[in-house]
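Tutorial, part two.
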Amino acid sequence: MRFIDYLSKNEPIALKVLSGAFSGGRVPHAFLLAGEPGLPLKEAAYFIAESLVCEHPSPLADESCRNCERIRKGNYADFLFLDGSVSSIKKEDVQAVLGDFSRTPVEARGVMVYVIHLVENMTPEAVNSLLKFLEEPPSGCYAILTSENVGRVLPTIVSRSETIRFIKAPYEEVVHEAVSLGVEAKDACLLALSINSGELVKEEAESEAWPERKKLYEEAMGDFAREKDEGLYRFEKIVVPAFAKKEDARALLLVLSSLLRDALLAKEGVAPRLSAYATMIDAIGRERNHLSASLQKALEARSELDLNMAPALVLSCLARAVYED
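Running the prediction step on this input gives:
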């Protein structure tokens, strides 16, 4: 699925803003792409980067030319990507960008682009370095920033950027679309938590990596329905080591917080969003005490990851909160 097709269907306002900027020659030196977790902000940042260097823009990237492909593969010399979903972005990381982008562009296009994904996960020192660069950017240099929590982004960064807000489609709508395209209900329920389009859910469900990741998600979910000793042992022995990377742990926390939310609301007679896992949700409601406190801990765990706590520690602490007597 081409990203411009995704924008046309799911984000027409964002597409209109981008098309207007590129067709009118009014491309700002800095974009801030903002939206909830589960929105394709990283993919949108890459698409804008492609549009800036595309060989045949109309006015946005054709997504098929050599420059577009090189951006996606990360081998375009005048393109840099800093990923705040993996670890905190430090002053040294930003200074490396400043050093690279103080030189003359290498590529014939004469444009330099850098992406900072999840800019809210920058250290204060890194933010200060970035501000100086945003205030006086070199000619032909463009910044693309993304954020899943604009409230944590320094107002001076927001004020120096063109903000484009992305809107999350209703979860049930994404699940329904995915199932109508032939995706299994359990796959659709899990993937729609972090993917904002039924077509993209289908693509991910058909990927080679998904079956193993789904198996691990279900292992983690099932452990919360087991007796304390067995469930906690299995969670820490099998699940925690499999989610050692920060971005993987974030994805698991999204699944587990949704599961705990459903178990809590089920006690009040509310139908679960993860409807394909209704039996498991009922079991968790019977076996686990303190569901409200457990859900709160799951939501806090995401912030703990953003503060650079070790994923293994964050997940273990969550499990122990869930199994608290």
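The chain has a mean pLDDT of 92. In part three we will examine how such features are distributed along the chain.
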